[in-house]
Design brief:
The protein has two helices and 26 strands. The chain is mainly beta. The chain folds into three domains: 98 residues, Immunoglobulin-like (Sandwich), CATH 2.60.40; 95 residues, Immunoglobulins (Immunoglobulin-like, Sandwich); 98 residues, Immunoglobulin-like, CATH 2.60.40.10. It has a five-stranded mixed beta sheet with strand order 2-9-8-4-6, with no helix packed on it. It has a four-stranded antiparallel beta sheet with strand order 1-3-7-5, with no helix packed on it. A four-stranded mixed beta sheet has the order 11-18-17-13, with no helix packed on it. The longest helix is centred in the first third of the chain and has 27 residues.
């Protein structure tokens, strides 16, 4: 029995000595965990284009280095809206650097531009890294006024002069002038260079009446301002309120009355002769019209069509004015939900 205890003690003491020696050896030279690995390190985490002009092609780059001790592989640079990226290659040795080229075309209007560019690699600690993209689109040439407010009862629609001015004092030429439906034109000499131009627009009243809203694009030779855009708005001759009538819980062939206001924005006298249905889907009748300042308040009777398989109907009401002018009101309706009929046996 004593011999058994003696052997057990010797074995336990031996294990303790081996464990102690192993711990001391481990303290002297700790083992390497995981082996060699790549590490992607970007020189900067923001690709800043700074201030750029509208409609310009811009290029920038972000430098990175493989600071690990194994080959780095760029597996993917995710697509980013409006941004194009390029790499010379996809694999980099330890200590080797690379460049991520970033190209981007700015929009036509002043604005702030921000995006996130995601770079994926075999870096085990950072398999995907986000690099920010930032830019400020600044106008290099401005147009004054920026919006043209036009009127059908004024000479040349009351269109003001358009002044073009270079904000960076670089001279430019006017190479083109276009507008919606060619309702607005202007004369210019494309051979002249200057930092400031004053244009005298010419308005086609007939085309303008058919295009009450639109845009003027003036093409330039400025290196960072190829186009200047202006919006134009025309005060319409008439305003109809509401422009849309919605009939909820409509009952088939059961009339409903709605109030409609018609105004002449130029304070001209006019007369309303009749009201009609363009498609003949709904029945419509002018019950009463009350004259007010610059217009009328109408009571219009609308009769929904017979019940069918659909739950809605749509038509356009036409107000016929004396002299041939026609004004439109969209009419949409929704039938009331019908209760199911219970059948008895």
């Amino acid at each position: 029995m004593r011999r058994t205890y003696y052997l057990s003690g010797l074995i336990a003491a031996g294990c303790m000595l081996l464990l102690q020696a192993g711990c001391q050896e481990q303290a002297k030279s700790p083992p390497k965990v995981g082996g060699p690995s790549p590490k992607i390190t970007f020189e900067k985490m923001l690709c800043d284009f700074g201030e750029v002009g509208p409609n310009t092609q811009n290029a920038n780059e972000v430098k990175f280095t493989n600071t690990g001790d194994a080959p780095l592989k760029i597996t993917k640079v995710e697509r980013c809206c409006g941004v194009v990226t390029k790499l010379d290659k996809t694999e980099y040795a330890p200590g080797e650097s690379g460049v991520l080229k970033v190209e981007w075309k700015s929009g036509p209007l002043p604005a702030k531009f921000t995006r996130q560019l995601v770079v994926r690699s075999n870096d085990p600690a950072n398999p995907q890294v986000s690099v920010g993209i930032r830019a400020i689109v600044v106008a290099r040439v401005v147009a004054e006024p920026s919006t043209l407010k036009l009127f059908l009862d004024e000479e040349n629609a009351g269109c003001p002069e358009i002044t073009l001015r270079s904000l960076d004092d670089r001279p430019f030429s006017i190479s083109g002038f276009k507008s919606t439906a060619e309702a607005i034109t202007a004369d210019y000499d494309s051979s002249v260079q200057a930092t400031r131009f004053v244009l005298q627009p010419k308005v086609d009243q007939e085309k303008l009446q058919k295009n009450l809203k639109g845009r003027v694009n003036i093409e330039l030779t400025h290196p960072e301002g190829k186009t200047v855009s202006l919006l134009f708005n025309v005060l319409p001759q008439y305003t109809v309120s509401p422009p849309l009538i919605i009939v909820f819980d409509a009952k088939p062939e059961t009339p409903t009355v709605r109030e409609v206001k018609v105004l002449n924005n130029y304070k001209r006298d006019f007369e309303i002769e009749s009201v009609a249905s363009k498609s003949g889907i709904v029945g419509v009748k002018l019950l009463e019209q009350q004259e007010i300042s610059n217009g009328y308040v109408l009571d219009v009777e609308i009769t929904p069509p017979p019940a069918g398989e659909t739950i809605r109907f749509s038509d356009t009401l036409t107000l016929n004015l004396k002299g041939g002018t026609k004004l439109s009101i969209v009419c949409n309706g929704y039938f009331a939900k019908r209760k199911p009929i219970l059948q008895t046996q």
